[in-house]
Amino acid sequence: MKQLLAIAVVALLSAGLAAQTQHLKFTNDGAFASISSNTDPLSNFNLQVSRSSASGTNLIFVSISFAADFSSATFTQIVGAIPNSSFSGDNTRNLTLDLDTSTLDPATSTSQSCTLDFTQVDPFFTCGPIAPGTIHLAFHENDIQRDRLLALESFSKVGPVTIHTHQRSDSGSANVQGTILGTAVSSSNATVGVNHMSTVDFIKN
Question: Other CB atoms closer than 10 Å to residue 197's CB: what's the count?
């Protein structure tokens, strides 16, 4: 839920997208890998990369970092299609994400950094493009846990955003190592698996 909230807040309510984005929908039907972690006590990130038979390969990446005095929060996001060649692996035992953000197509993806200033009476986002960088993550299934989700449908409302999720998947725990935009990542709490026509809708009411 925290991941969905972060995506909904940044993707639908930030100043850069609020004017044109009322509805985001992702349909995933193939291999996926995900990791959610804290990089320090004031920062965390969520990343999911998924294959889709309809739209190629999709990435949802959101990081949130708070100022030490909690006067502001900075959100960095990459949401949308990425080159199919960026996500490789024949099965869920070993999956690799290698993305150069300079290869993103602005017509099919959004990448930006937004700062929310809490010192203002009416907090507002200030947004701009992210600096070019790379994401390299190697996922290795570790067989500690396996899950099968037969059918899940849920509706959540967070402020003016409704999140509609429909998911069927097989998944397992994984180790991951690599870097995200210059920050080292190493965890045994990643997830790999296969989606079966799973969808997530973000609707701004």
Answer: 15
- Give me 174's structure tokens: 């994984």
Phi-psi region of 159 (alpha: psi -120 to 50; beta: other; left: phi over 0): left
Q: Which residues contact 140 (CB under 8 A, 6 or more apart)?
A: 93, 94, 174, 175, 176
- Domain positions in the chain are 2-204
| 150-156: long-range contacts, CB 8 A cutoff, minimum separation 24 | 156/1, 156/4
pLDDT in tens, 96-110: 999 999 999 888 888
pTM, full prediction:
0.79
Among residues 59, 49, 36, 37, the alpha carbon closest in space to that of 89 is found at 49
The span from the CA of 58 to the CA of 87, in Å, is 9
